[in-house]
Each structure stands twice: as structure tokens, then as C-alpha cells.
Amino acid sequence: MLGYGGSDMCRYISCPFGQYCWNGNCLSSTMGGMGGMGGVGGIGGIGAYGSRGLSALTSAAALYGSSPYTAAAATTGALAPYTMSGYGLGTGIGGLGTMSGVMPCNLMQQCLNGQICVNGFCAKSNIAYSGSQVMQSASTCMTGSVCPVGEYCMMGYCIKNVMSTTFVKMRLLLRIAILSIAIYYAYSDILPTIRKVQSVAIKGKLLCNGKPYEKARLKLYEVDPVVDTLMSEQLSDASGEFNMKGNDTEWTTIDAKLNIYHNCEDEAIECWRKIQINIPDDFVTEGAIPNKTFDAGILNLNAKYPGESRDCIN
């Protein structure tokens, strides 16, 4: 309760039903609402206080004690910061605020930032609160205009409906998921025929120090974005030769490669030397049996090939 003045009684106790708390004083919600609708516009506050002369208005008691403009001032968003008048009549221009006393509430979070919920109505608070509260909307619907999607009209203002936008997104995602499942089951018999079975073949000979290299490990892959598909694997024979083929089913032309793992002049070092040979698309055949073979030629494993690496798994 620290920081309240002596007039801030409704910060300690509740106002009677039908009234709201304004700067520490209980005011009629009907009077405030009608004054706000009367077209005060951008007037921050109007007050006449007779013999007070030049003074700062610090509480509602000082402003409304003898003011004939109580209804108008009660609906504005800010008090006049100072008043200058020889006759005791003062006006101050302030920013247009939210009409207090006309927006119903059950929780403080339902009120605009800078307001609290008092006796079922939103009222201006003199405590800074930075929690999750309704933000004031820039759109109005006083003249019958339609609010933007995701907002609803309340007392002439368009208020954002958080649950509405979230629900719409969830409903859209659910519909997409259901539609995808329905399409998959409806066309599951057709999809395999759209994809094409394709095959490749490759042959060659491996040498190490001019001699045939036996038992080199060879793996024929179809390159995929995530995990490559192994189509075939074998070891080179006693003459260092290999001849292998494989096939895979894809939507587009397959990308085939041959990985060769060996230890030519590298037996003392752990892991395998790895060479990769890409097979041109011209040697890809539609169907499970290839009708063309890519000849890799004679490969001297003593040499270091471009892109050569080391593999400890295969």
C-alpha cells in the first residue's frame, strides 16, 4: 500500500456496486460512460475549482470537488497536468485514453495495460503493471465498421481475440493433416507405379604397386538427401577386377556412386582409404536390369585421388 495518498480509499476497500475507482475515489460508472460518449475527443481533463488558482491536480478529490464537468473529465485517459486561469476555470489537453467504468471485467488481465479490475469494471491504476493484459486496439467499431479478422467489437473498440487466431491455426493444421492422410490411402496403390525402377552397372580393375589388389571393399550407392541407399556390395577378386550392378526406385533419375575402401600402402594406419567414383546419368537404365555398364578402367590405388578420405566404419 506504500505510495498511495490519503484520498486513495478505494485502493483499500471496494466501491459500491455500479461505481468504479478513479484516482482513489469512487465514481458512478454510468456518469463516466455517458461523458465519454459525449465527444470529449482529445481533451485530457476539464476542471473548475474556484479559488484554487494555479495548482497541480494530484487527486480525484481536487478535480471533482466542485467541477461542473465531472462527467466529461471522468471518461478521459489522463488528468490535466496543470491549470492556468484568472477565473479559476482550467483546461488541459491530454492523450485520448480508454473510457473507464464501461468495460466489464472479472480479472485484471482482461483490462487494458495500466488498468485494474474494480467491482466488475476496468479502472485506471496508479501502479505500473507489466504482466499479460489486453493491449488497446487501434481499430474502432463505433460507426458500425467491421473489426479485422481475429478481433471482436467491445464497447466501440476492436479487441484482439488471442484464442480465435490460435484456434484457426490449429484447425487449419488439423485439416491439412487429415487431408494428407486421406490422399495417401486413396492413392497408395497408384503411387508405386509413378516411381520408376532404375538400375546401373559398373566395372573396373584395381592395382597396388602394379599388382592386382584383392579384397578391396566396394559399395554401390544411390545418393539420397538424408541417407544413401546401398544397392550392391562386393570384394574385388584375385585379379583385382570387379563387376557389379544394382537398382533403386525413385521419382527422378537416380544418382549412383561407387565407394572403394582399401589399404594399399597403408596397412600400418588404422581405418580405410576411401575413393568415390560417380556414375554418369547416361549409364542409368529404366528397369531392374541395366543394359549399359560404366567402365571405370584400371585404378592405381597408390595414387591419391581427388576427394579421397578415410573411413573407419566400412
From TrEMBL:
<protein>
    <recommendedName>
        <fullName>Transthyretin-like family protein</fullName>
    </recommendedName>
</protein>
<keyword id="KW-0964">Secreted</keyword>
<dbReference type="Pfam" id="PF01060">
    <property type="entry name" value="TTR-52"/>
</dbReference>
<keyword id="KW-0732">Signal</keyword>
<dbReference type="InterPro" id="IPR001534">
    <property type="entry name" value="Transthyretin-like"/>
</dbReference>
<dbReference type="GO" id="GO:0005576">
    <property type="term" value="C:extracellular region"/>
</dbReference>
<comment type="similarity">
    <text>Belongs to the nematode transthyretin-like family.</text>
</comment>
<dbReference type="InterPro" id="IPR009030">
    <property type="entry name" value="Growth_fac_rcpt_cys_sf"/>
</dbReference>
<dbReference type="InterPro" id="IPR038479">
    <property type="entry name" value="Transthyretin-like_sf"/>
</dbReference>
<dbReference type="GO" id="GO:0009986">
    <property type="term" value="C:cell surface"/>
</dbReference>
